Amino acid sequence: MATLFEVYKEACKKLENKQKDEINIRMLLCANNNLNSMSEFFIHKDENVKDLQRFNSNLSRFLSGEPIQYILGEAEFFGCKFNVDKRVLIPRQETEEVALYALRKIMRVFPNKKIMLADVCAGSGCIGISLAKHIDVAGLFLSDISQDACDVSLSNIAKNEITGYVLHGDALKPFIKHGIKLDVIVSNPPYILNKNDVDKSVLTYEPHNALFVDEELSIYRSILLDAKEVMNEKLLIVFEIGYDLKDKLIKLLQEINLDCEFTFTKDMNDKYRIFSLLLERKIEA
Predict the structure, then answer these.
(1) What phi and psi, each to the nearest 5 degrees, are found at residue 168?
(2) What predicted TM-score, i.e. pTM, was given to this entire model?
(3) Which segments of the chain are extended strands (E)?
(4) Which of 261-265's residues contact partners 24+ apart within 8 Å by CB, and which partners?
(5) Which of 31, 37, 140, 212 lies at a 20 to 30 A Cα distance from 177?
(6) What does the DSSP assignment read for 41-78?
(7) Nearest by Cα to 252 from 280, 208, 282, 214
(8) Is the Cβ–Cβ distance between 221 and 251 less than 8 Å?
(9) Do residues 56 and 2 touch, judged by C-beta distance below 8 A?
(10) What mean pLDDT is predicted for residues 146-151?
(11) Binning pLDDT at 50, 70 and 90, where does residue 197 land?
């Protein structure tokens, strides 16, 4: 029977880029032998591999280009772990920046207030669930047009031991239907215009309906047009956006004549990644 370290060395010989990918081999072996960390891998490296057939199957999937998160069925985001598979996008580091921005903005706009929080186009629910672990919420809602994504969101509410509700439907329509009023909306909607901007592995394995937006930015338009229908006294909206959407979104705001404060913020790669808006209900004299 082969040891963990022996299997690790043999598997690394099959990698095109050992420096980049060898950590994924260790992750596969840790999952295979129920080890919780890289330090445990080295502590137990001389133990036998528990299920070599399973490891070889997972290794074959990885060498074929399938993302490691889908093989493991799990991804880390904002200090939490989330179930992920081909029904939802894999949480990205750039999206962690969006979550951190939203967290800080919420604390400034709503100090000492329990908020009604919605993660729209939630996918795995990683943004909304992560935020709800760091702030007081009166209610957490995760919504998606994909029933498959809703099912994954629901599993992640349970996984992270948090109270929340999942709504199936397009943009803000389910909130309007159920009469739910909100203080904060966070959303990572489809935002890619050009398929050439996407890596081959993403195109092959991740759900296209969560990746690509039309030229009319229909999902953004829908959320912004319906925003006043679901807002409490104030409504903070934080979107993750594509690097090339700033001008189109400004034009969209002009078209729909939405009276609000808005800000575009760049990410660590100096690309516009965050679009935030603050709407306030006008008090009539």
Answers:
(1) -95, 125
(2) 0.93
(3) 74-77, 80-83, 115-120, 137-144, 165-168, 182-187, 231-240, 261-266, 272-280
(4) 265/101
(5) 212
(6) HHHTTTSBPS-HHHHHHHHHHHHTT--HHHHHTEEEET
(7) 214
(8) no
(9) no
(10) 98
(11) confident
